[in-house]
# Entry
Amino acid sequence: MPNTNLPIRNTVVQDILDKMPAWPILWGNTIVFVLLLSLMSLSWFIKYPDALSAELVVEPKVPPCIINARCNGLIDTVLVTDGQTVKINDVLCVLRQDADYKSLLQLDSLVNALYFENLSLVSFEGISATQLGDIAPLFVLLKRDLTALKLNGSRSNYSNFVATWQQLKMTLQQWDSNYILRASTNGLMSSYTVAPGTFIAAGDPVFEIKSSKPNPLQYQVKILPADINKLCEGQEVLFNTDGGKQHLLAQLGICTNCKQKNGYYRVDLKLEPEDLVKSEAKQITGVATIILHEHRLCERMFANIFKMFN
# Structure
């Protein structure tokens, strides 16, 4: 019969079982659990935003009007100075030519103001054909037709006069378009360092006309069409201009009525009154960061799990 009084454990094993474990072993699981719980609680309070980078454009609300040259040539006479107030259709400068521009402008004024019902009163006194360059033959023909019409008011003479008048008017319009630069709006002049004798090519900017009224700057961000649906009014925007000044209180304006231009949507920014720039300046660029959504850190950690449940 087997002996049932044999010891179950040997002495070494019994000593290990009888010895009290160190405190890290006793409280290890509890410490790890508390640390994980603390990190989870902290992740609830920490928010990490989704952000969208965009180009910032700062420019006057009423952009300046640029007057470009329409043909190649040398500047003959500049009739305005920087800062001068001009009105629409004022003559700014004249390109060099064979004719006297004052005589041509006077002739153009007379031709456009011609009143056909009182042709007997029409006179071209003070205008010499020798000062009109290539337009002189048409001017001489018009005077001859006018004289013939005054002597004999036949339908044939009237038709000849009207045809010559129309041809001269079109020629003067073409001359004005090629050799005369006029103001296309009211405002204050600013030139691109033009002076008599300066060569300008077709398309070159020659003058800039700025608004004479208070013209504050407007702040806009350029948004790609793929990102426009991510935006909504009131989202915060952080940005730096080229000057380095940072605005933290900007918000997006209305996004629904934005128009697409050159492949981008332009969305206005709303700034606090003290941050608005009152003085006018040329266009400034910079980088803007739009805060789309602020997610808690725990939401980001378990985003995939939340998607599975959703």
Observations:
- Residues 155-179 form the longest helix (25 residues).
- Residues 65-209 form one domain.
- The helical segments are 11-18, 23-45, 101-112, 136-151, 155-179, 297-301, 303-309.
